[in-house]
Amino acid sequence: QAEIARVQDIGVPADKIFYSSPCKQVAHIKYAAGRGVQLMAFDNEVELSKVARSHPRARVLLGIAAESSPSAHPSMAFGTTLESCRRLLETAKEQAVEVVGVSFRLGSCALEPQAFAQSVAAAQLACEMGTELGYRMRLLDIGGGFPGTEDSRARFEEMAAAINSALDLYFPAGCGVEIIARPGRYYVTSAFTLAASITAREEVPAEQPGSDGRWDGGTAGRAPPVCPSRPEPSPCSSPEEEPCPERPSRSSSLRGPAGRAEDRIADGLQLPELQVGDWLLFEDVGAYAVTTPHPLGEPPRPPITYAMSRLAWKAVQLFQGKRPQTEDDRESVCAPLSCGWEMSESLCVTPLFAPASII
Asked: Which cellular components does GO assign to this protein (predicted)?
């Protein structure tokens, strides 16, 4: 409800909102109906019956199970199989629910480009079934999960090429099917850097069974999100930083604030000997890092400070027609951190863009 209200408050019309959750509360379905939101998704008979009873005017997409690669994270899967599509479409016909297309979502965590192509092919078969039953299948939702970092197993450009090739083959231009996607992760992953402080530490003796000489680097005050099929989160360092002989690197482990096994951040990191109060920076934590409220007993949501590189700040000034500040101007003004005069290296923030006019 809160998400629908928020997007409508900023002017998004109801016919542009897709209530894509595969598990919807009846109260939320009725709320969406009252706000004029019609487009929804379903992937089983229970969900279909809820929509039929609570929102008879809804237009729905049939959610199909995506073809994930064997190396992808085996998270809880949503979507029906191709074998069950016809039965669900026939049930929708009996309950007078208007099916307008197909939806799939592979999720995140560095999936293979070929998995998207296979899912597009499956979606085309599901659309054919709907057309045979008299539905006008005019919408295909290819979901999200597109990588937003360079260390992904497949880069965004590779995925886009595979998806576009599959769409040209199975949903060519002029076929009457509109394609939509949800590239949220791609846009926001690199937008946030997490700063976490060391709140506790423990040194594990080399002779302790299973320690392998490992030193428990400490407990971070806020843990970065962990994606099982991506590399373990690792603190970043300044590109100009050189190893310090007085603080040699040691094999270290990092844990979240609760110290439980499931709060493991990373093992085997080569870090200098950290002390309580030291800070670590983790890049690329913009997706699903601060969106959910914290449960009882967990650390509160961390404060967010907006910053940009000096190069980007100069570009903004130029675009606004302002004269770039000189060194003398900068020394006479006490600028806050968020205005962008900080050095990007100290925050592990790379320039947002570099217009040729100021390079």
From this structure: cytoplasm
**Cβ distance 170 to 120 under 8 Å?**
yes
**150 plus 28 within the same structural domain:** yes
Verify that 44 and 185 share a domain, yes or no.
Answer: yes
Specify whether 110 is located in the same domain as 240. Answer: no
Pick 122 or 210 by higher pLDDT.
Answer: 122
CA separation for the pair 203, 218 (Å, rounded): 9
Question: Under a CB-based contact definition with an 8 Å cutoff, are residues 201 and 214 in contact?
Answer: no
Q: Is the pLDDT of residue 216 over 70?
A: no
- Phi and psi of 330, rounded to 5°? -70, -35
Range of the domain at 152: 2-189
Separation in Å, CA 125 to CA 2, 66, 115, 273 = 35, 13, 16, 57
Q: What band does 299 get if pLDDT is binned at 50, 70 and 90?
A: low
Any residues with CB less than 8 A from the CB of 145 and at least 6 apart, and which?
Answer: 105, 106, 107, 108, 109, 111, 185
* C-alpha to C-alpha distance for 35 and 10, rounded to whole angstroms: 14
The structure tokens 């913009």 sit at 286
Residue 58 to residue 180: CA distance in whole angstroms: 18
For the chain, what is the mean pLDDT?
77
Helix (H, G, I), strand (E, B) or coil at 157: helix
Report the distance separating Cα 180 and Cα 88, nearest Å: 22
Does any domain span residue 295?
no
Instruction: Outline where 218-357 has alpha helix (H).
Output: 310-319, 327-332, 344-347
Q: What is the DSSP string of 253-268?
A: EEE-TT--GGGEEEEE
Sheet containing strand 139-144, edge to edge, reads 18-19, 39-42, 59-63, 98-103, 139-144, 178-182
Q: Is the pTM of this model over 0.85?
A: no
Is 181 found in the same domain as 61?
Answer: yes
